[in-house]
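Handout, page 2. Input:
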Amino acid sequence: MTELPVGWNATTLGHVVQLQGGSTPKGVLVAPAGVDIPFYKVSDMNSSNGAFMSEARVTLSTQTAAQLSLRVFAPGAVIFPKVGGALHTNKKRILTRPAAVDTNTMVVLPTAALDPRFLYHWLSNITLADYAYGAPVPQVSRSRLSEVPFALPPLAEQRRIVVAIEERLSHLDAAASSLSEVSPRLTQFRQSLLRDAFDIRWERVPITFVTSAERVIRYGILKPGKDVPGGVPVVKVRDYPDGEIRVDSLMRTTPEISARFEGATLRPGDILISIRGTYGRVAPVPDVLARANITQDSA
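Output:
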């Protein structure tokens, strides 16, 4: 750890938080009248509402939570998935009220020396999967997470940092919102421009007149299967949202599956068009995707 500002302490995460897991109800979850304890599952963390939780599907009375042997955690605890593929989603939430969570969830309880929002943003800056163990279903290792170096600022400094972070994040959210509004307009403008460019009294012919007679227009692989490291790249419609194929994020299939759709094998200079789901996306095939393939959603 580099030299810290005056007043900061070099420590580990395990010294400033308690790491606990959720619990499994010992009985049937039934929501009685007068409920006050949410029971959150990983699926309840899908809200896009920043650091805070969406509504829990099940809520319980304090008495029922105790009868089911559920641990109830105080507001300010930061929770995140600790098992399986959800580790890679980087979802983290802050409890805003006393709540119980399921056994697939890790609970990080800040000590009095740590502001929950500072802890939330710090945890959002690490990749939880890096602290997982086990196969085929990985889960977060509490011991490894406890040993992560942690630079602890004074409480007032933590809160100042949180204000600065959230101010900048709000600016980014506003910019992202503006861009999302601009993008459809740019698409409309692009289509209008192309329409004007080709709205000439040229002879109109079927597209097969200007494509290869040997390599007919066709779609690609029906079921590419799971991603295979080192396999044949497969282009999906999602991989060319704006007229260019994002080659770095392509999934890969086995050579055997690709060979069954040999007629859809790509060559540099080919033009892809989306024909299912999202229609009309177009992108040229670059040199690096020679011998790659496509799915049934593109031609």
